[in-house]
Amino acid sequence: MNNFRNKQQGVVLVIALIALVAVSLAGIAMMRSVDTSNVVSGNIAFNEAAIQMADIGAEQAYTEIMGNLAANPNACLFVPGNCPVNTAGKSYFYPNVSALDVTSRLPTPTAGLNWSDPMLQTLPGDATASYSVHYVIERMCGKQVTGVASDETANLQVAPTFAKCKVVPIYDTPTPPSTVGLPLVGQGKLFYRVTVEVTGPRNTRGVSQYFFGVQDAVN
User: Are 214 and 151 in contact (CB under 8 A)?
Assistant: First the structure.
């Protein structure tokens, strides 16, 4: 009887050790799962912040677009040297639209891609800037838009090309309102594509594109 009881006590010890190991492994697995979830959540938060930061670049680009319309006699439409340039002296304001690279999804002008100077942004609570925003501005003009090969090298200073670029006519106000208005002579809505790239913590990278349609004089 005593021998049987001693054997039972040995089995209980083994079972207890197995249970302890199982509980320990489950605890370790839970800790790793929580750590992974925190990392994933942090990456998502950084990525969302990068997408929101892109609006800053788009707003700055829109301001530059509005300052370079035909209504401004000193715009780069008439004076190429007045086009916005980065600190290296390279223009990032392109008169023609380019195709997107299939891998990076970024514009690939044949002459090379020039970005604006990076705008450093700081998140609330951060002591240093953790995000960098830069952008490229393109007029919706070129072979990809018009289908004419000669338009690939055209520029805004050439009146016929300016008229062939992506333009929607602006109509006057009909009188009476029930009638159809006529297109305003020399006025149209021109389209621009702005590509914004944002880089941030943990190798975060976000690319956003914006399209602006603005009224301008069309030759």
Answer: no
How many Å apart are CA 54 and CA 204, to the nearest integer?
13
Is residue 108 within 8 A of residue 101, CB to CB? The reply is: yes
Domain coordinates in residue numbering, the chain:
2-217
- Per-residue pLDDT of 156-177, as tens digits, reads 555 566 566 777 777 777 666 6
Paired tokens of 146: 């018009």
| Distance, CA of 44 to CA of 28 (rounded, Å) | 24
CB burial of 77-104 (b: ≥16 within 10 Å; e: otherwise) equals: beeeebbbbeeeeebbbbbbbbeeeeee
pLDDT in tens, 72-109: 778 876 777 888 999 999 989 987 788 888 787 788 76
- C-alpha atoms less than 13 angstroms from C-alpha of 72 in its C-beta half-sphere: 15
pTM of the complete model beyond 0.85? no
Question: In angstroms, rounded to a whole number, what is the distance separating the alpha carbons of residues 210 and 59?
Answer: 10
Task: Tell which residue, 111, 138, 1, 123, has the closest CA to residue 52.
Answer: 123
Please say whether the beta carbons of 186 and 211 come within 8 A: no
- Look up residue 91 and give its DSSP letter: B
